[in-house]
Design brief:
With 116 residues, the chain is of the alpha+beta class. The protein has 2 domains: 26-60; 63-116, Roll (SH3 type barrels), CATH 2.30.30. The chain is 28% helix and 25% strand. A hairpin with a 4-residue loop joins strand 1 (67-70) and strand 2 (75-81).
Length: 116
């Protein structure tokens, strides 16, 4: 009789490594992160930069006699121009001073609502 218990260790083949998806750069999470950032830049940031550039160009071209609409909805004709302040006639002999940045749109010549 054998007094010691014999322990038989069964050996099994090693478990296969978990599959991490397709190999290469396209399977990498960094690729998807970079792709999402590029997509956000193309759809959100770039169009906003373009609009700001167009607005800045429009504001620099405002001159005396132009019809404008302010961001508050006032329609008028520019009667005086300084660096950052415009004098706008909104009715006959009614002039207001507004910041140049408050101009939402511009039309050359007299504004549409005015009569000669």
């Amino acid at each position: 009789m054998n007094t010691q218990a014999e322990v038989q260790v069964e050996s099994s083949p090693p478990a296969p490594a978990p599959s991490s998806g397709p190999a290469g750069i396209f399977g990498s999470p960094i690729f998807f992160l970079v792709a999402m950032l590029l997509l956000m830049w193309a759809l959100l940031i770039r169009p906003q930069q373009r609009r700001e550039k167009e607005l800045k160009a429009m504001l620099s071209q405002v001159e005396k006699g132009d019809g404008i609409v302010t961001t508050g909805g006032l329609h008028g004709r520019v009667t005086g121009v300084t660096d950052d302040v415009l004098t706008v006639e909104i009715a006959q002999n009614v002039r207001v001073k507004i910041a140049r940045s408050a101009v939402a749109s511009r039309s050359a010549g007299k504004s549409e609502g005015e009569k000669s």
